[in-house]
Amino acid sequence: MQPKPPRRRPSPPSPGGESGGSTPAQITITVAGDEHVTLKPTHTFEVEKGTKTWYELKTEAEDKITCDEHYKIDKWNFNNELGEEIPDGHLFNEPTTVFAVTIQTSTPPEPKITITIKGDEGVILKGVDPTITPVKGKQWKQIKSLAEEKIDKYKKDHELKNWHLTDASGAVLDDLYTTPFDDNATIFVETKIVDITLTIQGDSHVTVNAPQLKVPRGTQWRIVKEKAKDQISVHSNYKLKEWRRGSANGRPLQDNVPLGEDMIIYAVSHPEKITITVEGDGHVHIASDKTISNIAYGTKWEYIAVLAKKKITGYEAGFMFSAWKNGAGGNELLNGDTFEEDTIVYATAKQVPASLGKKIPEASIVGKDISYQLPTKDGSDTLWRGVFPEGRTVTLSEYTIGEHEVTTELWNTIYKWAKDREYEFDYQEGNMPDSNKPISGVSWRDYVVWCNAYTEAKFGNTTQCVYTNSQTHTIVKSIGDSDDDYIVCDLTKKGYRLPTEAEWEYAARYQGNDSTNAENYGSVYLTNLNSASGAKKPIGFQSVAMPPSGETYETLRAETARVAVFNKYYNGTGFVEQNPSVPDLADVKTKDPNKLDIYDMSGNVAEWCWDRYSATISSGPVTDPTGSSLSSDTKRVLRGGYWSKNKVDAVYECMTGKRDYDSASTAASSMGFRLVWQE
C-alpha cells in the first residue's frame, strides 16, 4: 500500500483577484518509458497547474502505457531514465515529462521460431503443413526429431531420401549441416521408392555377367527386363525366351507386373531352330525319313502340319486319319499350338465310319396300272406314277441300301479326309456342323465325288471306286461343268454310290407279302404310290376321292407324320402347319421305318439318285436300269420329298411314286442322299 500523501498547503490566491474570480492555468504532462514500455497513441494528459500531487496523477499516467511481458513499473523519474525519481507529493506547476522505469518480474523464455514441414507425394504428414517451434538458434541435429514427429507415414513402397531446406532443390539437411535456425523456415521431406535386389540366374545356355540388379520397388517388369537383359549373354544358336520367377520352373514374369520384393529372376533360353519327328500308331504308315528339320522356334502347328502330312504314306485298309498328338500320349495338336523344342508329333488313325444298311435280295418287279387316285399337275398325274408302270418288268440285282440318309457328321468326316487327298468339291467346309441331321445343300456332283472318297477311305485304295471318267479313264475326284456326260457308274464295284431310281423306289415301297395299303407287282407287294414309305394310309391330297371312307385328313396326316418329316399338310380346305409344328429338318431315324426297317425314305430331305431324268419310262424287261442314256437329258433324279418352309404342298413330294429332278450342280437345302453298295 502506498503511503498517503502529505497535506498540501493551500496555494496563494492569484494576484489581483479574489477567491473564485479566475480559471486555474492548465499544464501538459507527457508520459514516456524505457525499452520495455509501449506508449499508447495518446500518452499525454492535462492537469491544473499546482492542483494535484503525483500520487493523485500516477494512475492516469499508468493508463497511457503498457509494459512488456515479464516486466512492471519500478518507479517514475522526471524526464528520462536518469532523471530524479518523482516524489508522491510533487505538485506540477509546469509541463513535465514523467518517465516510467521498469523492472523485470520473471525470466522470459528463450525466443522461438516457426518451422513449417512439407513433403513430396511419397509422404503423408500429420495435418496440412504442420509446424514445429524450436528455440531460435538450434541446429538441424537438435530439431530433427521434432520434424520426424510430424510424419504420419510413408506411402506404399516409399521411404525417406533426404531432408531439404525450403524445397526439394534446397540444401540437404544432414549431420554436416550446422547452420543454426535463427528465423522462421520451411523444411522439405524428399522420398524415394524403396529399392529391391534382383538376383540374376539362367539356364546352361545363358552366361550371367552381373549377378545383381537394384531397382525401385513397384517398378514394372517391362522396364526392369531391359536392364536385366544387359547383364546376361545368351550363347550362339540360342535366344532369350523369357524370364521366370525364382527358377526355370517358376512362373513367367509378365510385363505389367510390379516387382515388390527381393527375388531371383531366371533367364530361360531357346534354340533358334528345332526338329520335328513324325511317328504314328500301328495303322499309320510313315515315310522312312521321319524328321522335319530347321523349323523356326515358335512355328505354329498349322504350318508344321502341312509338312507332317507329307510324311504319312498311307493307312491300313479300313482306317483313316484321326488326329495329331504331341507325342503318343500327349494332347491333340491344335492349329494355334507353337513348337519351342524338338518334338515328336504322333499321327493316330481310326476306323473308317461304317454305314449301316439293309441288303435287298435280287428281285423282279412286274409293272402295273394302279387302281387308286393320284394328285395331278397341269391335269396329269404322270409325275406320281413312279418307275414300275404297266408294261415294264424290272430286274434288280442284289444291293445294300443305307438304313438312313447320310448325316452331316459322316459327310464332314469323309469330306475332310478327301480334301487332303486331292478330291475337289463345290461344297465349302463348315457350311454344316456335325450333327445327326441329314447332310443337305450339296450338289449331285459333290455327292458322286464324295462316294468315291468314302470308298477309297474304306478299302485303302481306289480299286472299288464306282465312278470313273470315260474320257480320262481315271477315278472321279472332281466334276466340272463339262464333265457330266463322261461320268460312268460301274454297278459291279463294291464301293459306295448313289442308288438308281429303280433301286430307290423298290426299297421305299417294298412290303413283301403285306398287302396293307399296297398292290401286287408280280411276286411282291409295293406300297401305294400316293403314300409315304412305310405308311398304311395315303397322304391326304385335294381330290373328291379324299379322304377315304372312315378316314379324315387329320388321320391321314397323323399316319404320314408317323413315318415322314414334313411341314404343312392339306386339311380339306387348304395347307396348314402341323400342331405341334415341325420347324426344321429332323435327326435321322426319328420316325418309324418302313417294311425293310429303312428310315426317312419319305420327307426330311429329297434324295439324289444316279439316273438322268426322263419323263418317259422305258417299257419291256430291263435289268438294273440307270435312267436315260440321252445326253440331252441333263437333269438328275430326286426322290422321296422333303421338309419345306415355303412350299405349301411339299407333302405331295413325300409320296413314294413322286419323281423329281434338278441340275447336277444344284445344291439346295432340301437335297440330300442315301448310299448304296455291294457286300
UniProtKB/TrEMBL annotation:
Coiled coil: none annotated. Residues 1-10 have a biased composition (Basic residues). Signal peptide: none annotated. Residues 1-25 are annotated as: Disordered. It comes from the Bacteria. InterPro entries: CTDL_fold, Sulfatase_Mod_Factor_Kinase, SUMF_dom, SUMF_sf. Pfam families: FGE-sulfatase. One of its GO terms (molecular function) is formylglycine-generating oxidase activity. Residues 392-677 form the Sulfatase-modifying factor enzyme-like domain. This is SUMF1/EgtB/PvdO family nonheme iron enzyme.
